[in-house]
Specification:
alpha/beta; Undecaprenyl pyrophosphate synthetase; 242 residues; 41% helix; 6-stranded parallel beta sheet
């Protein structure tokens, strides 16, 4: 369902807030181009929208918030844009290290972190250490992440362990994914007008409710997030049953 901006902000049922919301942060570049700005300015605005969304969703009682920050395919983008995204991550983490404990937000990274710059990997390690002492909402940042790559890595892990193929179950395979101890998303939001998953949480999104909107990610404010959650609340989840 797609809501227009002219619609009134919905009233949410506070007893039916999704436990886990995921989002594909799409439309940063187009947001900047519409304003005659470089694409890097869009990523900066998208980073701010991400932080605001995390704080708002935590206030609603959402327990997990997972975002698609950088995919395994994003390395194909112009070097300048990739460099800008890495720089934003660096600045965000330096800020997060100062503020995470105060806001009681846990931050975790899902993906193949090995190819990242050493300075960024060091900041991620520092962030992980701080997260061990926090108990609030967990924010998962999918970084150098691809859904197919994640599944392949999980299968390879089982093969290396010598697991009998006949004993492999969904739960066993799921235990080797980056998200092993995280519940699957209840709601996945795709802004930017695109109607696809783009290799995001392919295993985990099996029974997720989807919300697609033309709103670009930097414009996904509290009112737009409310519309997504209201759409979720208007659906019946049957998980294959009647």
């Amino acid at each position: 369902m797609i809501f227009g901006k002219q619609e009134a902000r919905p009233v949410l049922d506070k007893t039916n807030i999704p436990v886990h919301i995921a989002a594909i942060m799409d439309g940063n570049g187009r947001w900047a181009q519409k304003r005659g700005l470089p694409r890097t300015a869009g990523h900066s605005a998208g980073s701010e929208a991400f932080q605001n969304a995390a704080e708002y969703l935590q206030s609603l009682g959402v327990q997990y918030f997972t975002v698609y920050a950088f995919s395994t395919e994003n390395w194909k983008r112009p070097a300048e844009e990739v460099q800008a995204i890495m720089g934003l991550l660096d600045r965000y983490l330096r800020k997060a290290i100062r503020e995470m404990a105060e806001k009681n937000i846990r931050l975790r990274f899902l993906g193949d972190l090995e190819p990242l710059p050493e300075s960024l990997k060091k900041l991620i390690a520092e962030t992980n250490e701080i997260s061990r002492g926090t108990t609030g909402m967990q924010v998962n940042v999918c970084l150098n992440y691809g859904g197919r790559d994640e599944i392949v890595r999980a299968v390879r892990s089982l093969v290396r362990e010598g697991v009998d193929p006949e004993t492999i179950t969904e739960d066993l395979l799921g235990s080797r994914l980056y998200s092993a101890d995280i519940p699957d998303p209840d709601l996945t939001i795709r802004p930017g007008g695109e109607l696809r998953l783009s290799n995001f949480l392919l295993w985990q999104n099996a029974y997720t409710e989807f919300y697609f909107t033309d709103t670009l990610w930097p414009d996904m404010d509290e009112a737009e997030l409310d519309k997504a959650i209201a759409a979720y609340q208007g659906r019946k989840r049957r998980f294959g049953g009647i």
